[in-house]
Design a protein that fits this description.
It catalyses: alpha-D-glucose 1-phosphate + UTP + H(+) = UDP-alpha-D-glucose + diphosphate. The protein is about 35% helix and about 20% strand. By secondary structure, the protein is of the alpha/beta class.
């Protein structure tokens, strides 16, 4: 069910990465177009934004990403062929992607990090809060994380990040948040952020995952943010600065960017940024499909018991 949020209508999806972990499959095909069962991964992300009420989607792309635009555009020749065959089911599935949202595209140019990719969205977003969805994280539609984050942003203002508790041994793979509890069990106030810290230096095992709802004040911070870890402009560094500004400001003017909150997510998340996790995501989603699941689960059980 699509929800309506009149104050937040725009989603930004960074999609300029090279996908080197999936070479050679991504030599000529964007990693975002790799199929997860029978839809490209990027379509799941756009569907999530639309389900949360965000009808305006800006994709930050790079070279060799034209297939992304083609996928969300009409394909009249294919549609005509399916129509002549009377294949209404496949025709509807083909048209679904082009009817999802109002799509826009801008090229990042130099790949200077997630913070720079978000900054590329500034002319399109303007002075309104907006969402950022990273394509490597697929959130199960039965767990409406983004809608909850939008609700918290509308309640408290400022910015909201998605957090998950992870094994402390894995925290070096993520941004780590220093947090304080609030009166709401799934919401914390973020007082600091560190990008991919050593385990001993991590402020917590709350990891930032790929969903953000951001105050437009982040653009001003990103313009001044120097390259950080990996020589890239890190969105985490800008959010850390916003959190510090809010926590240390003594007056309302100093709190103009608002607080930074985190929604602690305990639902179903599928990581498609790693080859092993990508395969596991396909298996999990295929098992849960009504049209594929029963037969596939039967085969999978037999394969595991007989072949392994």
């Amino acid at each position: 069910m699509t929800q309506s949020h009149p104050g937040i209508s725009k989603a930004v999806i960074p999609a300029a990465g090279l996908g080197t972990r999936f070479l050679p499959a991504t030599k000529a095909t964007p990693k975002e177009m790799l199929p997860v069962v029978d839809k490209p991964a990027i379509q799941y992300v756009v569907e999530e934004a639309v389900a949360a009420g965000l009808s305006d989607v800006l994709m930050i792309t790079g070279r060799n990403k034209r297939p992304l635009e083609d996928h969300f555009d009409r394909n009249y020749e294919l549609e005509s062929a399916l129509g002549r065959k009377g294949d209404a089911e496949r025709l509807a599935r083909v048209q679904e992607s082009s009817d999802l949202a109002t799509m826009h595209y801008v090229r990042q140019g130099d790949p200077r990090g997630l913070g720079h990719a978000v900054l590329c969205a500034a002319p399109h977003v303007g002075d309104q809060p907006f969402a950022v969805l990273l394509g490597d994280d697929l959130i199960d539609p039965r767990d409406p994380l983004l809608a909850r984050m939008i609700e918290i942003q509308e309640q408290y203002g400022g910015s909201v990040v998605a957090l998950m508790e992870v094994d402390p041994a894995q925290i070096h793979l993520y941004g780590s948040a220093a947090v304080e509890p609030t009166v709401e069990g799934d919401v914390v106030r973020v007082t600091g952020l560190v990008e991919k810290p050593d385990r001993a230096d991590a402020p917590s095992n709350y990891a930032v995952i790929g969903r953000y709802v951001l105050d437009p004040a982040v653009f001003g911070i990103l313009r001044k943010t120097e390259p950080g870890r990996g020589g890239e402009i890190q969105l985490t560094d800008a959010l850390q600065h916003l959190a510090e500004m809010y926590e240390s400001a003594a007056d309302a003017a100093g709190k103009a960017g608002g607080p930074v909150h985190g929604v602690v997510f305990k639902g179903r998340r599928y990581d498609t940024g790693d080859r092993g996790d990508y395969l596991r995501a396909i298996v999990r989603l295929a098992c849960e499909r009504e049209d594929l699941g029963p037969e596939f689960r039967t085969w999978l059980r037999r394969y595991v018991t007989e072949e392994m």
